[in-house]
Structure prediction request, 168 residues.
Amino acid sequence: MDFNRIYILGTSGAGKTTAANLLSKKLKIPSYDLDDLFWKRKYDVKRNEKERQQLLIKICNKRRWIIEGVYDKWVEEAIKKSDLVLLLDIHPFLLTCRLLKRFFKRRKKEDRGSWRDNIALILYVWRYKHENQAAGYLLHKQLIERNKRKHVHIKTTQQLKNFLNDIH
Prediction:
């Protein structure tokens, strides 16, 4: 089956960006990070909702795309227009390890990010699947089901590797 529009969803540290980059190279489809739409200046100045939505619609109207990000219901347009949604549902213990590793790596390189922000992110990862929150698992599942999108629910790193190897 051909997939021209793929939306990758999952909490922080789940592998969305890595999967998007690999799929983009393999399928020769441009990849978009929702952080670039949400932030005017990354992790500092937010765009307003109308501006974000306009940018997202512009991308969604393209013939081919891969979009990755873990935001609330403003991303429904991307889910609606996707041929496939990848829902990355990796165990929070592994995600915590990844987030700590990423925190230390970025802190050395860019001298940004605080412990407080990283702890908040780790707490979000642990609550993602079990609490009804704005950008949580329950909302994401509802958006996929409401829009009747074909989706692949990936629970392990090995499942993700297998999927990435098998898709063409």
About this structure: Residues 16 and 95 are 12 Å apart (CA to CA).
